[in-house]
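User: My advisor asked me to double-check a structure prediction for ABC transporter permease before group meeting. I don't want to rely on an old file, so could you generate it fresh from this sequence?
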Amino acid sequence: MNGLRTARRWIGDHLVLGLGLLVLAYTFVPIAIVVLMSFNDSSKQRNVYKFQKFTWDNWLHPGSWADGMADSVWLSIRIALLATLVATILGTLAAFALVRHRFAGRSTANLIIFLPMASPEIVMGSSLLALFVSRGFPLGFWTILIAHIMFCLSFVIVTVKARLSGLNDNLEQAAMDLYATESQTFWRVTFPLVLPGIVGAALLAFSLSFDDFIITNLNSGQEVTFPMFVYGANQRGVPMEVNVIGTAMFVISIAIVLGNEIMRRRQEKALAA
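Assistant: Sure, here is a fresh prediction for ABC transporter permease from the sequence you gave:
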C-alpha cells in the first residue's frame, strides 16, 4: 500500500511537468527536423525527408538554390517588411486612439477590430480578390501588400492595446507634475514603456505576412512568394535550401525576442530603482 501511495504521489507531483514537456516536444520537434534537414545532403534524392549526409553546402552556396527560390524569398521579405512598417504605424496610432480617447463608436470599433482575426483566410482572400477584380485593379505586388497590411493591422492593434491598457499612468502624471510638456512626456516616458509591445506587434505582423499562403495565393497574380514557391516545389521535390530559410528565420526571431525581453527587463529594473 505504501508503494502504491508513493507512486500516486510521485505521479501527482510530476504530472504537470510531464505534460509540459510533452507539449514542448510536440511544438519543437518539427522545428528540430527543419534545422536538421538544413544540413542534409540530399543531392541524389529530392523530396525524401531522410537524412543522407551532413553538409554545409546548403548554407555556404546560396547560388545553388533552386530556380526562383531566391526571388520568391526576396519578394516575401520586401512585402513582409513593408506590411509590417505600415501596419505597425497605423495599428499603434489606432491603439492609442482606442485606449486614450473617448469618442462615439469606440465600443463598436473595438468589436470590429477582431473581425479580420476571426474571419477564415479563404473568406478574406476571396473577398479581396472580388474587390480588386471588380475595380479593375491588376493583381500583383501591390494587391498582396494591401491584403497583408489589412490582416496584420488587427493583430498590431490588439497587441499594442494590451500593452497600453496595462500601463500605469502614475509615471506620466509625475512627469507632467515636473513641468514636462505633453511631447516630452510622450517621448521620454510613454513611448519607451509601450515600445516592447510595439516591437512584439511588429514581429507578429512580419511573421504573419512572411508565411501567409491562402490570401496571398488568391491575390498574387503572377507573383510567387516563398510559401507559394514551397507549395509548388512540393510537387516535384522540395530543395533542402528551403530548410535553410526556415532555420534562419527561426534563429532571427529568437534573437529579436531575446533582445526585446532583455530590453524589457532593463526597463523594469530602471523603474524599480
